Amino acid sequence: MKTICVTGAGAGIGRAIAMHFHGAGWRVIGLDKDAEALAELRGALPRDSALLLTCDVGKEGEVTRSFVRIEEWLDGGALDCLVNNAGIADPYCGPLEDLALDDWQSWIDASLTAAFLCSRAAAPLLKRAEDGASITNISSTRAVMSEPECFAYAAAKGGVDALTHAMAVSLGPKIRVNAVRPGWIETGPWQKGGERRDPSHRPKDLEQHPAGRIGRPQDIAGAVEYLHEAGFVTGQHLNVDGGMTVKMIYED
């Protein structure tokens, strides 16, 4: 039985990835700093095939402690896939001149520093996989295209893209490393109970996607599965955005 570790597993895209792989027969390790969200996920996954740990993956000490526990749980076995999904979901930080350094650092740590820390900790476990292992970093289309006042988020995701190809070159051939760049993904139904909401989209929201709809977290889970199975794909950045980034948008 293969094992996947997903950061930011408590809600949204991370929760969908964890549920998708568990449904496919994998053992799942989930990390999230939201203990309430993890407790809800724990109720949906059998304890014998899931390890869910409260962890702020942007903090070195917490990552170190979590991976000590993960190694114990694996009991000499391998980690087959790491998904660095954690991050601050809201990209907007306000005017550049008002952006505090601490706030900037929060975005960087939540995505980029976390991906580094978890990849570093996971690498020895991933190298145990007999058939080769994979890391998928969840980046964003905002790594390559911007909206106003998203400086820190865009910089963090751009760093994740760069880290992806750097790790692919250095960790291959035992570990393949790729990134998924989600576009507009509706995560409302995948939040924890108190924050769950039904989607509501305008016709023009759908029309800006050549695929004709907003993305779903399951779309990203499927992309992660593809990249894990695609043995000749590494160092790549896969846009999963319904075609939004290739369509010209004209103002009315």
UniProtKB/TrEMBL annotation:
It comes from Altererythrobacter xiamenensis. Residues 186-215 are annotated as: Disordered. Keywords: Oxidoreductase. It comes from the Bacteria. This is NAD(P)-dependent dehydrogenase, short-chain alcohol dehydrogenase family. One of its GO terms (molecular function) is oxidoreductase activity. Pfam families: adh_short_C2 (PF13561). Belongs to the short-chain dehydrogenases/reductases (SDR) family. Residues 193-210 have a biased composition (Basic and acidic residues).
